[in-house]
Design goal:
Elements (H helix, E strand, L loop, with lengths): L1 E3 L11 H4 L4 H15 L5 E3 L3 H13 L5 E4 L8 H10 L3 E5 L21 E4 L4 H11 L2
Parallel strand pairs: 1-2, 1-3, 3-4, 4-5
Helix pairs in contact: 2-5, 3-4
The protein binds 1,3,4-trihydroxy-5-OXO-cyclohexanecarboxylic acid.
The site of 1,3,4-trihydroxy-5-OXO-cyclohexanecarboxylic acid (DQA) has 10 residues, from loops.
Length: 139
């Protein structure tokens, strides 16, 4: 399961100098293609709502999901609810970012998601998702 948080629906036009020109649909298509090579089914979702991400994390536990790739967007840096959800579901969650938040403003340096995620892939643009998928497949 690949979960994307706020503003990632605007990829392609959102600050392309930071996030690139690929849309989330482009990234999802690449994940599905790589997943097919690996024999892994990809369920890629996006929401602008924090509670929806919490609900989807709970659903992942119930649905027999192997691992979750989570780009929580700005909620990465604010959401204790997401931290608690990741701890609660006892599934491997890999934190993903297009940019490298630690190389940006200081308010992006704290990651609540990172406190519970098993791994983090960042700063590679859309390739962050593909590297994270390969790592998830190896878990
Ligand atoms: C992001 C980094 C976050 O700091 C930011 O709020 C985002 C995108 C990334 O993918 O680089 O929305 O998660």
């Amino acid at each position: 399961m690949v979960l994307n948080g706020p503003n990632l629906n605007l990829l392609g036009t959102r600050e392309p100098e930071i996030y690139g020109h690929d849309t989330l649909d482009d990234i999802a298509a690449r994940l599905v293609a790589r997943g097919a090579e690996l024999g892994i089914e990809i369920d890629c979702r996006q929401t602008n709502h924090e509670g929806m991400l919490v609900d989807w994390l709970h659903e992942a536990r119930e649905g027999g999901v192997h691992a979750v790739l989570l780009n929580a967007g700005a909620y990465t840096h604010t959401s204790i609810a997401l931290l608690d959800a990741i701890k609660a579901i006892q599934l491997p969650v890999i934190e993903v970012h297009l940019s490298d938040p630690e190389a940006r403003e200081s308010f992006r340096h704290l990651s609540y998601v990172g406190m519970a995620a098993v791994d983090c892939v960042k700063g590679l643009g859309p390739d962050s998702y593909l590297v994270a998928l390969d790592r998830a497949a190896a878990l």
